[in-house]
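ugh finaly. both done.
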Amino acid sequence: MSRPSVPSPSSGRGPVPEVPPTSRGEIRTLPVPIPTAMDHVIPTRNMPALLGYYFGVFSIIPGLGIPLGIAAFVCGVFGLRAAGKARVGGGHAITALVLGTVFGGGQCLLLVALLIYR
């Protein structure tokens, strides 16, 4: 039995369009929600970028700068990859890369200079 394309007048809706059947290999995914202004300030949908940002900021602490700088750099790379999908967190990921390189790399160079010229 085929379904009528015109619903009853009591339903209040117009004609129901026919939906073609899905193909066997089709994968349905949920649409990505549009980011709000707050998502750009604190990108909770892009956790690697957010974590990398905090690691980069706290890599200024002497002694913790080298491991936190490495963690900031790694999280920044993963955050840049995720920024394309989530559409948020690109700025945080770039900041994590820069801060991790400057503070972590700077403290590493200072440690090497201290060991050489000791």
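ok and the 2nd:
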Amino acid sequence: MFDFLKKTKKPDPDAGRLLASILVVFPTVQSVTYDSKDETLEFSFALNGKFSHDDFEKFLNYVAESVETFHHLEGLSGATIELNVEGIYGTCFLNVRRDVATLTCRELSMLTELASNYFGDRLIEEYEDSIPDEEYLMAQEDYLEQCLNNMRQLRVEGRLVGVREHERVVVYSR
């Protein structure tokens, strides 16, 4: 009768930590979304500048080939990846959707490096002025790998979104 009186199930803390860690370790990732329905993570990179459709087409092909090669070398099969772009002028967003079952921290590193190498200073990066301590980032990467492994074993319900808010990271259930 009164929906507001129903207790909502809190999301698994590992899922929230996973999203927060991704945003901390990879300063070029502006937002990350976990969708339990299809068990995927979607990463968004923000770009400043004017781009042609051809610019993005070349990049998407470059990423698709690189990821396919990476998966072949890692012996991964059945991995799903979707790439798309929102907007062309001003600030636009490059979105990468990956299944959690086969995603690794190394692949995330590769994806962010590909975007950084291809777009250069047009890729918006949060830590331009103050880069976190190297030891801290390495510990976060280890923790991120642990969270990814936990996500493969757990069944997390709902949809979680992690975003940057200046120097803070916010994760919420949607």
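summary for the 2nd one i guess: The first strand starts at residue 29 and ends at 35.
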